[in-house]
Amino acid sequence: MRRSQFGLTLMMLASAALAAPLAAQTYATQNVASTAGIYRNPDGTGLQQGTAPTAYALNGGTGRVLAFSSVVGSWGCNFSAIYSADGFDSGGGSCAGSATTINSANSISGVNAPGRTMFLVGLFLDANNPSGLAPSPYNYAGGYGQATYSGIALNQVFFIGDGRTGDVFSGLPQAGGIQQFLVPGGATRLILGVADAFNFNGDPSFYDDNVGNLTASFSISASTQPPTTAPEPSTYALMVAGLAAIGFAARRRNK
User: Fold this and answer.
1) pTM for this structure?
2) Paired strand residues for 158
3) 123/43 Cα distance (integer angstroms)
């Protein structure tokens, strides 16, 4: 095969890798306990707070999006299961505290969620247990009702609630459109659980008085947004090799 043809073949392979459709994944009626500690590793190691959460395996790729078609049920703290997945939006009640300000732990980010307590959270992990410096808390300056959340990092706890743009705090039907959570590159697992602490402030703790559970149905599919992560290094290597081969062939013709 001539170098120019070989280069074009490599470029076509790279383009196919970039354009390959993502195999969608659907997880129906998954139980999420009110004691599922988001700071505890799924294998039971690490911070021993709450019960070990379930780890959902994710297909690899870029441009992935997480969306929840349904999150129903009720849970709460202080032995009172009266809240929906969106949690509680002010101080008082059985779940005290007017905000969630939990410190980072186990190499997992803290949570800074103004005006909200006892809500469903998520966490994207790679194949290993979290290690090293924890990322900063996700910034919720834009509120909890955005249609799309981007910039979520590995090992960074993020608010899910019931996965809709509208807030529901008392177990009523879900409101608003389905939200999209863009999956970071390198993520191979999704964790669902609760970020809890005494009065939802300080170090993770106080899962023992949580009661109730949620049932969540969600999917991982191709995003309608531009990818937020770069292609895999192997894809770049194919593109560079293809350009080099084409350039070499053109140079020989010009001699």
Assistant:
1) 0.79
2) 122
3) 15
